[in-house]
């Protein structure tokens, strides 16, 4: 989570650069906007400028959570709801409106970037077991004699690395 303020002194922006650069490694960015703020559009532009300046990867999904919809007049609320998309969702953190849909969308985007694999790993291969725990999400484990049967969620890059490494080992 990063809050933005316009017209910060250059040295203060530089101090936050390392924090902002973490965004480039994110699997998903959720830009929570205060749509009831009179400068909401300008704040959005500020965020987009900073993200472009960081060289954000093009394939990095970005969701807009249009927060504080409850503070808008009824007509504006209805308009935002009508213009909602899968990547632009009206919400109210106060009332909870739209939050379930936002969480479902986040889950769907993250799930699309991951796959589940089932593998057998020798219990004596502690390095490989540690790799699965470090790089993935171990959803289930069953030790079977000399091996551990793992069900692991991996991102696309780690799945490709796993398949490449295991193909080399099989040669």
What's the structural blueprint in terms of helices and strands?
Elements: H1 10-21, E1 29-34, H2 40-53, E2 62-67, H3 74-82, E3 88-90, H4 99-112, E4 114-122, H5 126-135, E5 137-144, E6 147-155, H6 156-170
Parallel strand pairs: 1-2, 2-3
Antiparallel strand pairs: 4-6, 5-6
Keywords:
alpha/beta, three-stranded parallel beta sheet, three-stranded antiparallel beta sheet, elongated
The overall pLDDT, averaged over residues, is 85
Query: How is the biggest beta sheet arranged?
Result: 3 strands, parallel
Helix tally? 6
Rg, nearest Å:
21 Å
Number of strands: 6
**Percent range for β-strand residues:** 15-25%
- Structural class, by secondary structure, is alpha/beta
The proportion of residues forming helix, as a percent range, comes to 40-55%
How far apart are the termini?
45 Å
What is the string of helix and strand elements? HEHEHEHEHEEH
Regions with little confidence, pLDDT below 50 for 5+ residues: none
The geometry reads as elongated
What topology, given as strand order, has the largest sheet? Answer: 1-2-3
